[in-house]
Amino acid sequence: MTEFWLISAPGDKTCQQTWDKIMAATTRTNNLSTNHKFNIPDLKVGTLDVLVGLSDELAKLDSFVEGVVKKVAQYMADVLEDSRDKVQENLLANGVDLVTYITRFQWDMAKYPIKQSLKNISEIISKQVTQIDNDLKTRASAYNNLKGNLQNLERKNAGSLLTRSLADIVKKDDFVLDSEYLITLLVVVPKTGYSDWQKAYETLAEMVVPRSSHLLFEDSDSGLFSVTLFRKAIDDFKHKARENKFMTLTHKTDGYLNFSEAFIAWIHIKALRVFVESVLRYGLPVNFQAMLLQPNKKTMKKLREVLNDLYKHLDSSAAAIIDSAMDIPGLNLSQQEYYPYVYYKIDCNLLDFKV
Question: What backbone torsions phi and psi does residue 190 show, to the nearest 5 degrees?
Fold first, then answer.
């Protein structure tokens, strides 16, 4: 199951007691879910008016960022031209798989300083993800143009490395990933130009990492080399490489980085939403336990019933609606699902493969 339920409930005498209760109700005897504490730092609460307005803004931002995360994932799938499983294993956040990142979530204090107001933090995330979205549009357009051009070239002139999928040739280990400053590029070099490449690549632009080039693959005509450099030197490097008849390929490294950034931003938005909604529902002083539940697919309905029984005292009207809905087969609650406890779904199945 790649679906998680991010929920919160008010602290009893202590937040640990809240945690112990849900563990007893969902894991110790019936194995309904795998649970993790979800750590949210002490954020600035602000005024009630601001929180109410922010609640609506965060809902829209959540939807927007989820859309960008899925678009980046789909772009990577298109570039990889490979199976769902292959692409899924390449979707990383902070260098780890998505489930690990979510279940061990730690707030990024450097990117999103908690001394800032909640509104400022949401604006930082919004600007960051809007930039990723704009970059993606540019990159997807360039990729589609390149793909179209390569398909029109004659193989004997272009070299087969320029036209084949690289999915089975390169691995994650061949790239510097999740670096703000460094990037790994792929370069096609004619076999007759290997010695020229080795002599020249470190001086094609400033800020090329010495001895960073490695031969990853070769066919009868050409070799595929990796090279690592600082991001700010990319344009100069590509220009000089082209002058020397070395062809730099557009590849998935930027997709990796953008996906990681977008996914991390998305989970931080979920954390913000839990915090804001918990304060609005449970009041001050701030006293709630955020919890991440990974339901077992066969017992999801039972898990809902158990959570409803556990927390129905928090909001009797919501509990009554859920009770009646459970008695009517085929009735589906609206997309704005409301429960007596704070609840947000996180689905890590981000790829829409066309069969």
Answer: -60, 145
Average pLDDT, the chain: 85
* DSSP SS3 for 221: coil
Sorting pLDDT into bands at 50, 70 and 90, what band is 143?
A: low
**Contact criterion met (CB below 8 Å) for 269 and 125:** yes
d(CA 65, CA 342): 20
Asked whether the beta carbons of 313 and 28 are under 8 A apart, the reply is: no
CA dihedral 115, 118, 124, 127 (to 10 degrees): -170
Question: Cα–Cα distance between 293 and 218 in angstroms, integer?
Answer: 47
SS3 content of the chain, % helix, strand, coil (to 5): 55, 15, 30
Type of residue numbered 82: D
Residue type at position 246: F
pLDDT in tens, 263-294: 999 999 999 999 999 999 999 999 999 999 99
Task: Please tell me the distance from the alpha carbon of residue 304 to that of residue 300, in angstroms, as a whole number.
Answer: 6
Which segments of the chain are extended strands (E)?
Answer: 3-10, 33-37, 92-93, 96-97, 182-190, 214-218, 222-230, 247-249, 288-295, 342-347
Residue 331 pLDDT level (bands cut at 50, 70, 90): very low
Residue 239 has pLDDT above 70, yes or no: yes
* Distances in whole angstroms, Cα of residue 185 to Cα of each of 44, 69, 134, 227, 275: 42, 23, 21, 5, 41
Give yes or no for residue 159 having a pLDDT over 50.
no
d(CA 264, CA 100): 12
Q: Which of the given ranges, 6-20, 162-176, 315-329, has the highest pLDDT on average?
A: 6-20
Long-range contact list for 105-113, CB < 8 A, 24+ apart? Answer: 105/38, 105/39, 105/267, 105/271, 105/292, 106/39, 107/39, 107/40, 107/41, 107/268, 107/271, 108/264, 108/268, 109/41, 111/264, 112/268
Q: Compute the distance between CA of residue 312 and CA of residue 304 in angstroms, rounded to an integer.
A: 11
